[in-house]
Amino acid sequence: MAQVEINFDGIIGPSHNYAGLSLGNLASASHAGDVSRPRAAALQGLAKMRHNLALGLVQGFLLPLPRPNARFLDAISADGSEDPRLRAAAWSASSMWTANAATVSPSPDTTDGRCHLTAANLVTMPHRSQEWPDTVRQLRLAFADSAHFAVHDAVPPCFGDEGAANHMRMGTAHAAPGLEIFVYGTSGGAFPARQHEQASRVVARLHGLDPARTLFVEQNPAAIAAGAFHNDVVAVANERVLFTHELAFADPEGTYAAIRAVLPEAEIVVVPAAAVSLADAIASYLFNAQLLTLPDGAMGLVIPLEAWEHPAVRTWLDGMLASNGPIRRVLPVDVRQSMANGGGPACLRLRVVADPETVDPRFLLSADKADRIEAVISGHWPETIAAGELGTDSLADRVVAARRALLDALDLSQLA
Ligand code: SUG
Asked: Domain containing 101: what range?
């Protein structure tokens, strides 16, 4: 089969909870302490995957990581009783946001003709910094075929790296050589800039990218300060189309010119702040969308319901659909449980352009497998988790058994 884009969604784990751990992520802060609904969350995520499968797209998934994470607690010499935030960190289901699992450079872009993946170190947030060793284990299983894939460890922790959430790829087609755009932050006012320029440069070198087809672009500090803790909260690209908020980049015009210099076919759809303010873009997650090339060649934008229901955003989207732009369909999905922690449709997926035949089939979704996953979620995922339950033995037993049941159902018990 030819190289196609495969979206690997994170299956939302049984310990999904709202602990307010991410400074600079406004949704995480505003939902801190809320009762979470892990079962509903995971079913919402699965419904999104089924929705994309039904569109005729190839869909993959990654598994939740082991939680509570005893290895993390050991490393910080804690048992979870010292500090509620450390305890919550060890229980976090944050690996669901697979846009932060790794940065991916498909084979048409790399010197050795293999698809390269570098796990993201996620060092800025303690609860996310524990993810990458388990993530890399999983990536090495899913992409074990070393004739086609190279999976790298995370870059050293002196440089913060948040993976594909700050990386865009453009080109005339997925399978054609791409322009890779790395977006880094320098300052975010009161909020941290999570993606460091040096981390992006390390990843580009590791992947063997052509410097003539690689851009390093600064994120607008005002966007970070307004709550765009990752660039994918304010911009998304697919093939020749960049869909972006006017205030996403520190130098928007310079960025668009640099893109057009490499890719003259580029179509840049800019949403002006006068139509959708930065605050409304961040509250609605309009840009945290999956911009997909559908089997008929048209592009569709998978957005969260929050964006569809937002009056200013809806007005802008209606105008866009009525115009003759490159984005022909808008497809709203309900991922409210993830959204309440700052994770929209785009956060929940890692894009890999590859021949599906070269991927371990255990990580690829079919309708039957979706039914199997749904049965495990419905039977094992806790219905609710209240903040006070984190750290209890009874919940730990439940969460461990739930993940175990999923691994067994998917013949992936080697990830136990
Ligand atoms: O890293 N939220 C995640 C959301 C990640 C979204 N990903 C992308 N934009 N690609 C984060 O801030 C909240 C967890 C908590 O507060 O319990 C959290 O980790």
From this structure: 4-415
